[in-house]
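User: Reviewer 2 asked us to show a designed sequence for the structure in our supplementary figure. I'm pasting the structure tokens here. Could you produce the per-position amino acids so we can include them in the response letter?
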């Protein structure tokens, strides 16, 4: 199958969630990523005359799965066949297809195929969906930040973020929250002299003043501005050492230090 980019639209939910709607120019089929809230999705489907065909879930938190039940009821009324995909290891009851590392999801109507990346850390089973030059990564990587360690270890999260950082630089990152501005305040505390970061703060402030989304970001940009992807850099290692007074400056220990610093920031 030729892998055509789906069009991606943000549906805003709660105070700062993005539910991603994937659609094609060729038909009215749509897939939703992490529909935590059903009504905003139903409103979007109605307004755009779209037919829901798939739901992709990254992890089990309620702001990501909370809308599934009501969306499936709505789909049943409409006689739509909806397939729900999600991680095998995150104990989500409504899944039709349970996914593991390296498995693929083929959405025929959208002419695209996703590769599954396992990203333990925020939850045990967290996964991302990657297709050429786009990744839907839930609450693992945010712009200038990363998810909290609710279930996994710092080592696991560091490995998961490294997996994302190794995707091609032009990959667009569709995370599930608009946290960028708050994350940048911390990123600047870690790397006050980072020029790219300074420039990015200006861009993000302008976008947020106009109530514009800062997502998607890109892997290339995150490598330059996100302290959690920069644990191998001398500046970040030094900042971590100042924070926790530890002498072990392995990338993974540096990650653990700045994650804990951010939790108390
Ligand atoms: Zn979460």
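Assistant: Here is a per-position design you can include in the supplement:
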């Amino acid at each position: 199958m030729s892998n055509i980019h789906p069009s991606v639209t943000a549906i805003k939910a709660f105070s700062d969630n993005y539910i991603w709607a994937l659609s094609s120019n060729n038909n009215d089929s749509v897939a939703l990523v992490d529909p935590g809230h059903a009504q905003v999705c139903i409103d979007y489907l109605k307004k755009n005359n779209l037919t829901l065909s798939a739901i992709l879930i990254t992890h089990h938190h309620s702001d990501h799965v909370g809308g599934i039940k009501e969306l499936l009821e709505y789909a049943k009324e409409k006689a739509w066949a909806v397939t729900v995909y999600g991680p095998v290891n995150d104990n989500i009851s409504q899944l039709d297809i349970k996914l593991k590392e390296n498995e693929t999801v083929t959405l025929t109507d959208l002419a695209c195929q996703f590769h599954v990346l396992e990203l333990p850390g925020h939850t045990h089973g967290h996964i991302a969906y990657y297709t050429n030059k786009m990744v839907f990564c839930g609450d693992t990587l945010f712009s200038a930040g990363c998810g909290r360690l609710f279930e996994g270890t710092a080592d696991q999260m560091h490995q998961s973020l490294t997996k994302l950082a190794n995707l091609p630089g032009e990959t667009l990152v569709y995370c599930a929250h608009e946290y960028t501005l708050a994350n940048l305040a911390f990123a600047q505390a870690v790397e006050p002299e980072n020029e790219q970061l300074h420039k990015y703060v200006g861009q993000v402030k302008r976008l947020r003043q106009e109530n514009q989304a800062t997502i998607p970001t890109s892997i290339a940009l995150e490598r330059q501005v996100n302290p959690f992807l920069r644990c191998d850099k001398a500046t970040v290692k030094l900042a971590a050492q100042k924070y926790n007074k530890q002498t072990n400056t392995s990338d993974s220990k540096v990650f653990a230090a700045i994650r804990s610093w951010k939790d108390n920031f």
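For the response letter, you might also mention the following. The radius of gyration is 19 Å. The longest strand covers residues 7-13.
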